[in-house]
Amino acid sequence: MANGWSVFISLFAIVGLSAVVWVFAPKGENQTVWRSSLILTFAACYILWAITFMAQLHPLITPRRSNLRPEAHSDPRLF
Predict the structure, then answer these.
(1) Do residues 8 and 25 make contact, with C-beta atoms less than 8 angstroms apart?
(2) What is its main location (predicted)?
């Protein structure tokens, strides 16, 4: 089962991966484009994943049972 540390562990992994991209980006006139594209892609994917993960880890709305019939609430034998 996943816990809250997954967000921080993956953040450190993304920061490390971004540092690797910064150092090993292909040299040339498009080096800045390569760096920017890859680092922004990593950051955007991480933010999307982190928000989705945290929303599932701590939901704001409690799930409700949908299989209860309204007439079942009035019958005391069903409780």
Answers:
(1) no
(2) membrane
